[in-house]
Amino acid sequence: MHEPSPHGQAFEPTWLTTSSFSVEVEDRSVPTVLWTPTDGPARGLILIGHGASGTKTEGYVVALARGLVRRAQVAVCAIDGPVHGDRREDGAVTGVVPFLEFSQRWANDHHLTDEAVADWRGVLDHILGVLGDPELPVGYWGVSMGTILGLPFVAAEPRIGAAVLGLMGLTGPTKHRLERDAAALTCPIEFLVQWDDQLFDRHLAFKLFEAIGSDDKHLVANLGAHGDVPTRTFRASADFLISALGLAAAP
User: Fold this and answer.
1) Domain segments of the chain as ranges
2) Selecting from 3.40.309.10, 2.60.120.10, 3.40.50.1820, 1.10.10.10, what CATH number does the domain 16-244 have?
3) Which residues is 140 bridged to in the sheet?
4) Looking at CB atoms within 10 Å, which of 16, 120, 238, 248 has the fewest?
5) What are the tens digits of pLDDT across the range 78-123?
């Protein structure tokens, strides 16, 4: 459920500022990273949910964040998901261990989805407070585990104005929850599918897409396995959010 893709550059560009901190939600500390433009106030906020076995600062998350800040003058926020990154006692471990532990939690912890929704809502409240504008347009980007936990968040949160979801099907321990929450979606949705996905069969992905209740939804399918999302699709999905939220790309 981890989607390797374009890696962010190691240096910190002068046109953005990166801040790392934790947000306290109920009895949980949620590790958070926030990217903000340095040359003016943010015109919107995009939340990014990473995939299983990844972290809030892995390559494609950083690349997406920097691209969005650069091109649309928005702030971007990511958090470590359950049993990932700085939530772990062994540090920001990536790979098979957090992947397997998440799979076990997904199967056995009936509170996992609700806690993830609460985490995101708490972080959203905090970030909008930091940015000083509760009326900013807000979007969400999250595929695979980012959809398993993010789709219910988008369905529950009316402040989300558009979302990119996908690399997930109508399957798994929370299949019925996903189906119900998908039907409740009303904002514009872009849904990504990998034709040869070895984790979530494309036919199950099509069923999840069909379950989405939004009148404004479209599906983007590419050849390749779960982690083979093309670079052009990452960029196009960012363009979708910019357009759907009414934010013209910065020149």
Assistant:
1) 16-244
2) 3.40.50.1820
3) 47, 163
4) 248
5) 999 999 999 998 865 667 899 999 999 999 999 999 999 999 999 9
- Residue at token pair 């939530």: 87
Separation in Å, CA 128 to CA 5, 45, 83 = 29, 8, 25
* Model confidence pLDDT, tens digit, residues 209-238: 999 999 999 999 999 999 999 999 999 999
Checking phi first, is residue 128 left (phi over 0); if not, alpha (psi -120 to 50) or beta? alpha
